[in-house]
Specification:
Layout lengths: L8 H10 L8 H12 L2 H4 L2 H8 L3 H25 L5 H9 L2 H38 L19 H16 L1 H26 L15 H12 L8 H4 L7 H31 L17 H12 L11 H8 L3 H14 L1 H20 L18 H17 L2 H29 L12 H17 L3 H25 L14
Helix pairs in contact: 2-9, 2-12, 2-16, 4-10, 5-10, 5-12, 5-18, 5-19, 6-7, 6-18, 7-8, 7-15, 7-16, 7-17, 7-18, 7-20, 8-16, 8-17, 9-12, 9-15, 9-16, 14-15, 16-17, 18-19, 18-20
């Protein structure tokens, strides 16, 4: 039976009240949390990968990815307002589709949050290396600034930033959110400066050919650049720590996504128009895959001849400014990324720990993971465990592969949310909905179809990782979660709400 052990919404809310986190976040902090999660490695680093797949056509890729996220956000907003507890898509699927699907979603969210945090750590590392080189004249050896699959041994800067953010999150939620708000302002100022300098320098000739690799390249780039929009759903994981969540969660979800979409389109237009974003081809004219050894070798040849296209840069936006006569501002933008990207890592690890916290509270993971620190009132055990996993991924894998793997888990979670909001409209139509997804029978299917299409345009490796990861998760579920779940007859949670 697929939909077993459905946990009623009323019981979910009751459980949360018995073992809950402190409500201390308002609409502004939540919106900053969303913007902090969204604006990050995707726009600062992965713009180069999108250019290699789509060329100037990545403008359309941003629109496609943003649209899929927008319709998914509308579905998220309804469920988050109805069920203002931690857990995000995991909690919603538990209430609608049952424990088995909920476990798969919770397990997939590890790919979304933890692997995404690793990707941002690597993205931060690239800007840190560039900043030290261009501003201080210090060149960090490639062997210590790249993972083993990216031509090095271990990415030390990425590990160090992962450790710093983990310790900050153990310290406290309110302090973390305040720190995050400051860094969000820095990112917004940096992107605004880029737009002011790059957009007036747009040359129409740089937009031709617009789609050198055709429609396939544009959709493929959308599947990768989707990572740039991921993070708005992290707002819903903070629902249990939010004041007036029925009002503030929808505002933060939709508001942060809209603000970031406008910035992305302006930044992409500026980068393409002022500098150019055509793909790099092999000497024989064949297409080179982003992140491949062949592309790296080709970029090395071009650099030796004095040319460094956008797709060859690990710090794309700073490179554009430096190459168009704004070296000082380019270095400052690199500094802004250096200072601000940790806010994305913070939000991703924050989201992951809250997913684990709720799964542990439901008995699907060991109860020790839901322990709250007596002084800091944070789930410190699971935060430290998550941070360790993030650091391991960041140490050895390149940013592009990490982002694509993260997207595979995210798209599955978004798909389930899209289905859940429609099923709940049928099964529980009278339940109060502080926010209702408009035109749900259009928006829901569009969200689901969009997630499926983008998944199939991911690189083969990312598509294979997801089912393998899911299989590992099922082994854990049947060895522990299935037997220990508080929804299983006879099992009683420590708080008596099994």
């Amino acid at each position: 039976m697929l939909f077993w052990r459905v946990k009623p919404l009323d019981q979910i809310l009751q459980t949360a009240e018995k073992k809950s986190l402190k409500r201390q976040l308002g609409a502004f902090q939540l919106t900053m949390l969303g913007i902090g999660a969204i604006i990050g490695t995707g726009i600062f680093v992965l713009t180069a990968e999108a250019a290699q797949k789509a060329g100037p056509g990545m403008m359309v890729s941003f629109v496609i990815a943003g649209f899929v996220c927008a319709v998914a956000a509308l579905c998220y907003a309804e469920l988050a307002a109805m069920v203002p507890v931690s857990g995000s898509a995991y909690t919603y699927s538990y209430a609608v589709l049952g424990e088995f699907i909920a476990w798969l979603v919770g397990w997939a969210l590890i790919l979304e949050y933890a692997v995404a945090a690793s990707a941002v750590c690597v993205g931060w590392s690239k800007y840190a290396v560039g900043l030290f080189k261009h501003s201080l004249g210090i060149e960090i050896p490639a062997t210590l600034a790249n993972g083993w699959s990216d031509g090095g041994y271990i990415n030390i800067p990425a590990v160090l930033i992962g450790l710093f953010v983990t310790l900050l999150l153990v310290r406290g939620t309110k302090e973390s959110a305040t720190f995050n708000a400051v860094l969000v302002v820095i990112k917004v100022v940096a992107l605004t400066a880029f737009i002011i300098l790059a957009v007036p320098a747009i040359n129409d000739a740089n937009f031709h050919p617009f789609a050198p690799l055709g429609t396939t390249g544009i959709i493929g780039a959308a599947a990768s650049i989707f990572f740039a929009f991921v993070g708005f759903d992290a707002v819903s994981t903070a629902a249990e720590e939010t004041k007036n969540p029925q009002r503030n969660i929808p505002i933060a979800l939709i508001g942060s996504l809209l603000i970031c979409t406008v910035f992305y389109l302006l930044v992409a237009a500026g980068a393409i128009g002022s500098f150019g974003a055509n793909p790099v081809f092999a000497a024989d004219g064949s297409v080179l895959s982003p992140g491949s050894a062949e592309l790296t070798a080709r970029c090395t040849v071009l650099a030796a001849s004095g040319t460094q296209p956008l797709v060859c840069s690990g710090e794309a936006l700073a490179h554009v400014l430096r190459s168009t006569g704004h070296s000082t501002v380019g270095n400052l933008l690199g500094l802004a990324a250096f200072l601000a990207l940790p806010s994305v890592i913070l939000t991703m690890i924050f989201g992951q720990t809250r997913i684990f916290f709720v799964m542990s509270r439901d008995g699907l993971l060991p109860n020790a993971l839901s322990k709250v620190h007596p002084k800091y009132n944070t789930p410190h055990v699971v935060t430290m465990m998550t941070g360790l996993g993030v650091m391991i991924g960041a140490a050895f894998l390149p940013v592009g592969k990490l982002a694509d793997i993260s997207n595979s888990g995210t798209l599955f979670a978004f798909l389930v949310v899209s289905v859940a909001v429609m099923m709940l409209r049928r099964s529980d139509p009278d339940r109060p909905r502080p926010f209702k997804t408009p035109f749900v029978w259009i928006v829901g299917p569009l969200s689901a179809i969009g997630c499926i299409v983008l998944f199939f345009y991911l690189p083969t490796t990312a598509k294979l990782v997801f089912p393998i990861w899911g299989g590992i998760g099922l082994i854990f579920y049947y060895l522990y979660g299935y037997r220990k779940s508080y929804m299983r007859p006879g099992n009683v949670a420590p708080d008596g709400n099994g």
